[in-house]
Amino acid sequence: MRNALGSVDTVLLLGGRSEIGLAIVERLVRRGARRVVLAARDATASMKDGGGAVPVDDLERLGAEVHVLDFDAARPETHAALIEEAAAKVGDLDVVIPAFGVLGSQAVYDADPVAAARDVAVNFGGHVSIGLAAARRLREQGHGTLVVLSSVAGVRVRKANFVYGSAKAGLDGFAQGLADALHGSGARVVVVRPGFVIGRMTRGMTPAPMSVTAAEVADAVVESLDTRKVTVWVPARLRLAFTVMRLLPRPLWRRLPR
């Protein structure tokens, strides 16, 4: 539950090394969250080995109690148990943030359809599995927010990254449907649609117009938790831009630069 000051108290981050996810968690801890679960692939092993570990120390210095769990987005059969394990560690889950995914390369996917299918299974299927498991928990609690990190890449899919974009389009539709399914339960879904995010995942790529940073996305997400927005565009002016771009005839859409 939210604490006595109305701030989020417990947070579960799925994808515990995500720049965006960690930026959101840091802001929530600074605002009063005191129990955090970071779930990532091989997280506990990497902590023991001292390499690639999730940043527990930083959050603990800010006053949070931090738990680390192993999580594999490609193993949906483990997801329901992971949600229950997280709840057993910290109690009711106020905010759940699935922040995992693979950007991939359209050229690689064109040459290797198996790689395309594998990454789509993570970018869409993994989110469906963990999203449904988290939603069940939030519905039982009668409160809590699932933050779904969609993308403008899924609002209208471009030829330059249509495998990734199609997975994001599916995720966006799933999140909207799940939000409707949870209506009236006390739990809710926030759909976040960032533009090009400058960071580790996009290193070496030319930033698109209206690019943002992980910090800017995190600020918008935290604001949505206060204002109870259901859809968040980052930056906000992308909403108007895509209102226009959705209406472009396909011959013009195909001619957009990569």
Describe this structure in words.
- The protein contains ten helices and nine strands.
- It is α/β, with parallel strands linked by helices and 258 residues long.
- The strands form two sheets. The chain has a seven-stranded parallel sheet, with helices on both faces.
- Helix 7 (162-182) links the parallel strand 5 (144-149) and strand 6.
**Approximate helicity band:** 40-55%
Q: Biggest sheet: strands, sense, closure?
A: 7 strands, parallel
Provide the residue-averaged pLDDT: 92
Approximately how much beta-strand content do the residues carry?
15-25%
Give the oligomeric state: single chain
Number of helices: 10
- The number of distinct β-strands equals 9
C-alpha Rg (nearest Å): 18 Å
Report the span from N to C terminus. 45 Å
Weakly predicted, low-confidence segments:
none
Overall 3D shape: globular
Strand order of the largest sheet: 3-2-1-4-5-6-9
Determine the structural class based on helices, strands and strand pairing: alpha/beta
Encode the helix/strand succession as letters. EHEHHEHEHHEHEEEHEHH
